[in-house]
């Protein structure tokens, strides 16, 4: 009996910087390879986690990262500026802008701030040429409207 070869898989969205993975990260990466995962995209959602995400991506050859301002971090002010996103986008292992978008599920009090940061992240995707990684929860109409409006200002790739 021969062992079937799995097609290479890519984990396109995880958060390897979460503290619950700190003590087991080497084993997590090893198990993912054994399961046929050829590449991993870990997402950085706020500036306070950036250096940890970069260290993880630089340590493991098959781990890459994306950076963006998650809508749930807008209220705390733990968000990236356009200049920061563009600077980080030059890192050889950064492959996307996000996860960013709108999330009205927990609270809709800061909708305007979320929209502002969503548009800022779209600008970063457009200017860097990296794909935008969109998070949308209980905000489908506003998300669609902003994506349409922003696409009219210039093309950008998008993953939802």
Structural class: alpha/beta
Q: Averaging pLDDT over every residue, what do you get?
A: 94
Order of adjacent strands in the largest pleated sheet: 1-2-3-4-5-6
Order of helices and strands: EHEHEHEHEHE
Number of strands: 6
**Rg, Å, rounded:** 17 Å
Task: Report strand %.
Answer: 15-25%
Give the count of helical stretches: 5
Spatial gap, N to C terminus: 40 Å
- Shape, principal axes of CA atoms: globular
Helix content: 25-40%
Q: What composes the largest sheet?
A: 6 strands, parallel
Uncertain runs: none
What's the quick description here?
With 160 residues, the chain is of the alpha/beta class. The protein contains five helices and six strands; from the N terminus they run βαβαβαβαβαβ.
Q: What does this entry look like structurally?
A:
The protein is α/β, with parallel strands linked by helices. The chain has helices spanning 25-34, 50-59, 82-88, 111-128, 140-152; strands spanning 9-14, 37-44, 63-67, 94-103, 132-137, 158-159. A six-stranded parallel sheet has the order 1-2-3-4-5-6. Helix 5 links the parallel strand 5 (132-137) and strand 6 (158-159). Helix 4 (111-128) packs parallel to helix 5 (140-152).
Layout: helices, strands, pairs:
Blueprint: E1 9-14, H1 25-34, E2 37-44, H2 50-59, E3 63-67, H3 82-88, E4 94-103, H4 111-128, E5 132-137, H5 140-152, E6 158-159
Parallel strand pairs: 1-2, 2-3, 3-4, 4-5, 5-6
Helix pairs in contact: 3-4, 4-5
